[in-house]
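Quick question, first post here. What does this chain look like in 3D?
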Amino acid sequence: MEKLIQMRGIGKKFGEIVALQDVDFELGKKEVVGLLGDNGAGKSTLIKIITGVYPFDGGEMFIRGTKVSPQRYTVQEARKFGIETVYQERSLGERQPLWRNIFIGRHVTNSFGYIKVRKEKEETINILRNLIGLKGAVISPASFVVMLSGGGRQGIASGRAMYFKSEIIVLDEPTTALSLKEVEKVLTFINMIRENGKSCIYISHNIYHVYSVSDRFVILERGRVVGHYRRSELSLEELSEKLMLHAKSD
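> Answer (accepted):
Ran it through. Tokens below.
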């Protein structure tokens, strides 16, 4: 399997606090990896290194085969590599229409720099119908985000990432505070990411949600990777037992 991300012996400190130590992590093409662990395990730090928010202190990182420098690797560089993070709801402007939310910061313009509003609305329809499957008659490019459910908002954020050819989509706790029906929508969107040839890192405390859509699982505890597993290797109950075992050993 082609490797989109390869991390070897990654370390990160904040003063005297060791956030990550000797972490190995990989993400393949058309793969969903579930990143598991309790609060303080190092999940957020690892993701912020991958997305260019934090530099790493030690180890090596390769994105799509290119070795990156911790001093030069930024959020802007990460986006050039096709990496985008989707946060729960916070990445959308609730009082803005859907088409503006999708194209904010990346508007389609003419030779004079004016936004091609009609073109962006047409593309928004394409995203709604074909990328994320929101086909309700009441949903249109002019609809405001505040009108959508939590699952619908997560779908818009994910659809935006897919539209702009993001190869790697990071989902940070996407099902928090959602209803059962909305959770199903989000899990469907994650499967669509894979079906569209993209890859996903799915961070969650909810093992049941992660298990249903992930190809592999990586467990972090106190800044270290304590387990790598393929879904084909173990059941949901066995994965839960391993998480409990690592938690008890702390």
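The radius of gyration is 19 Å.
The longest strand covers residues 3-14.
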